[in-house]
Every structure is written in C-alpha cells, then in structure tokens.
C-alpha cells in the first residue's frame, strides 16, 4: 500500500506550512490585512485535505511504483482479454507492465506458476493437469478464459460435407468414426456429453485419437473419418474450403462447459494482492471490450480485430468476422460446477489418482472483489 503514503505526506507538509505561516504573522506588525489572508490559508488546507481523502477512497488508484506481471500465454484466442488490455493501455493505467512468457507445455508452466515465477497463466482441464495440482503444484483457478457461446461455439463438432444429408442428428453418428484430439481431457469430456445426449455409448461410435487439429481437417478431406471435434479458426477454414460443415452446436449438450481457466499463483493472489486487483480490473476491461465487439456488436469491432490479428496466429481480419469466437465472461465468472464434473469424469475413468481440494483450488475472491468495485457488465 505504498501509494497511500503520498497523500499523507502532502497533508503533513500542508499542516507544517500553516504552522510556520501563523508564527510569522504573530511576529510581524499588525497591518489589518490578516483577516483576508487567513481565509486563503484555510481554503488551501481544506483543498489539500479533500484531495488526500479522495485519493484514499480510490481502491484502484494507480500503483506508486511500476509492477511487472508475467503472463504465460501462447497466442491463443482465449487470451483476448490480456491482449486488448495491453494494447488499449488498461494495464499501463494502473502502472502495470506486462511480460508474456511461453512454455512448451503445462508440465513446464505449472511449476513456474506455483513458484511465483509466472503470475498468471491459462489452463485447460485434463486428468494430468488435475493430478499435478493434487500432487502439490499450488495454483488457483481465478477467472474464465474460455467457454462456448450458444449457437456459435468455437469448439464444436464438424461433419464431412458429403455426409450432411446422411447424418442429421447426433444419434446418426452410431457406427461412424469421430476424431477427438485428447483422451481424458476436456475434449474427451465434451465427446462423452455428446454421446450421452445422443443416447449412445462408447461402443456405438469409433473414437479416433488425432492430436493435431490440422490433421483432422486432412482426415475429413480424405474420407478417413466422418466427424471431428474441431476448433476455430479451423472450423471456418474447413467450411470455406468445402471440407466440412458445422454439426449442431456444442451448447446443445454442454451449455456450461468450462474449456479454459485463468490461473493465478498464490504469491500473486496473496503478497501481490494490490497488483492482482488492478491486473484483474484491466483484464476485465479488455474482456468487456471484446464482448462489446463480438457479442453485443456495439463496440469498435475493427479495433479489436486488429489487436487479435496482432497477437494470435489468425492474421486475416476477414476470418475474425466469420468465426465463432471464444466465449469470455465479462465478469470473470467460471462454470465451477462443470470444472468439478470434469474432474469426476477423469476420476471415473481411472485417470485421476489424487484427491483435489476445490475449496482451495477454486478461488473466485479476486474477480468478486474487483467486480464489486468496477460494477457488473450489462
């Protein structure tokens, strides 16, 4: 709370100055003008006191000293809130300097977050991810970083174009080959929810593991698979190339799937709490601009698209006008029940070996504290 010391020093100097002036007046001969000077000094003291009070009442005043916040981000579209806040100066407004760091995989990233070497990161649920945390890698889930938007999911099933007349419902996938990128991760979880929605079992559909989303498009084009759980912008790209069509929407059967989360280090949320509050305020401002542009379509969409092309692999502005964008909650809220359901799914599959304390891991206190200050998004 170093920034609080400045108003206090200003007030102390003002009071000292007033005391000095009063002594001088007592020593000088009475000119009859003291009645006009005293109100001016009184007014000056009052103004400085009011400025001090106003500063103290601002819970998100800019930091006195510049603070660096390290974010582990790989250029994914779900990092939109970080990119927009950086380019629009929201972090700078709070005297926060942002540094982006990249890691080869979560196995390298999680220990860095737990140690406080990285303050903030993005995480996607998987059995190995939960196991690492349960085994002592201390990180917290603090905000939403990716969910599907109803009717235009960015992570959903696609179907080979030549099969669109043959396969018209999820039940029609019986006996078909469906590609999924991971086993015992959020992709597998969404696949399972689709099967349950269709009244199918794992034995009814041929599960094809294809870890590369680009290879899924090739496999669809070569008729090696019939459908795939695909991600943007490859969904839009495959449609434009007449390879596949969108097949329903993932929100048909998984409306509250939490695909990615913002992670925070315990040090960032504890020792650096004042920095964390301002960081989260800037992040949410960026997310709100994103929602204004893509969801409400009331914001400056071209400006936001320019920022997204700057930071992600999707460089064509026209593509951003046609894709299903990542859902980002403007109040930072996560689907916490769904996160727990994913954990239980991996556990039932025998992929989870440790118990996870969700009361500790799910920490929504930061977003709740900040939204209380900046207000809810409407």
Automatic annotation (TrEMBL):
Residues 68-287 form the Solute-binding protein family 3/N-terminal domain. The keyword RNA-binding does not apply. Its main location: periplasm. Residues 21-62 are annotated as: Disordered. One of its GO terms (cellular component) is periplasmic space. Residues 25-59 have a biased composition (Acidic residues). GO terms for biological process: alkanesulfonate transmembrane transport. It comes from the Bacteria. Keywords: Lipoprotein, Palmitate, Signal. It is found in: Periplasm. Residues 1-19 form the signal peptide. Belongs to the bacterial solute-binding protein SsuA/TauA family. This is Transporter substrate-binding domain-containing protein.
């Amino acid at each position: 709370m170093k920034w609080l010391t400045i108003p206090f020093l200003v007030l102390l100097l003002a009071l000292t100055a007033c005391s000095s002036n009063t002594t001088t007046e007592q020593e000088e001969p009475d000119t009859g003008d003291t009645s006009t000077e005293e109100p001016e000094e009184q007014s000056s003291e009052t103004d400085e006191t009011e400025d001090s009070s106003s500063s103290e009442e601002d819970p998100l005043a800019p930091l006195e000293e510049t603070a660096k916040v390290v974010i582990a981000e790989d250029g994914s579209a779900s990092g939109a809130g970080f990119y927009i806040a950086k380019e629009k100066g929201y972090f700078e407004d709070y005297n926060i300097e942002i540094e982006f760091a990249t890691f080869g995989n979560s196995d390298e990233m999680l220990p860095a977050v737990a140690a406080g070497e990285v303050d903030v990161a993005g995480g996607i649920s998987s059995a190995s991810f939960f196991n690492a945390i349960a085994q002592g890698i201390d990180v917290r889930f603090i905000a939403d970083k990716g969910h599907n938007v109803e009717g235009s999911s960015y992570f959903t099933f696609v179907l080979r174009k030549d099969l669109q007349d043959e396969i018209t419902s999820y039940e029609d996938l019986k006996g078909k080959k469906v590609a999924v990128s991971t086993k015992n991760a959020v992709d597998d979880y969404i696949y399972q929810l689709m099967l349950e929605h269709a009244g199918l079992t794992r034995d009814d559909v041929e599960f094809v593991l294809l870890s590369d989303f680009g290879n899924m498009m090739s496999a669809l084009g070569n008729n090696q698979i019939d459908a795939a759980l695909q991600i943007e912008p490859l969904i839009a790209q495959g449609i434009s190339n007449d390879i596949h069509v969108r097949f329903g929407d993932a929100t048909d059967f998984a409306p509250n799937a939490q695909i990615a989360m913002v992670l925070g280090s315990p040090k960032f949320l504890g020792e650096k709490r004042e920095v964390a509050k301002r960081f989260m305020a800037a992040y949410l401002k960026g997310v709100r601009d994103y929602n204004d542009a893509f969801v409400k379509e009331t914001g400056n969409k071209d400006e936001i698209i320019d920022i997204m092309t700057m930071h992600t692999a999707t460089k064509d502005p026209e593509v951003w006008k046609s894709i299903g964008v990542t859902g980002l909650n403007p109040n930072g809220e996560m689907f916490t029940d769904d996160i727990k359901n994913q954990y239980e799914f991996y556990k039932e599959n025998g992929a989870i070996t440790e118990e996870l304390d969700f009361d500790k891991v799910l920490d929504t206190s930061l977003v709740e504290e900040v939204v209380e200050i900046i207000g809810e998004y409407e």
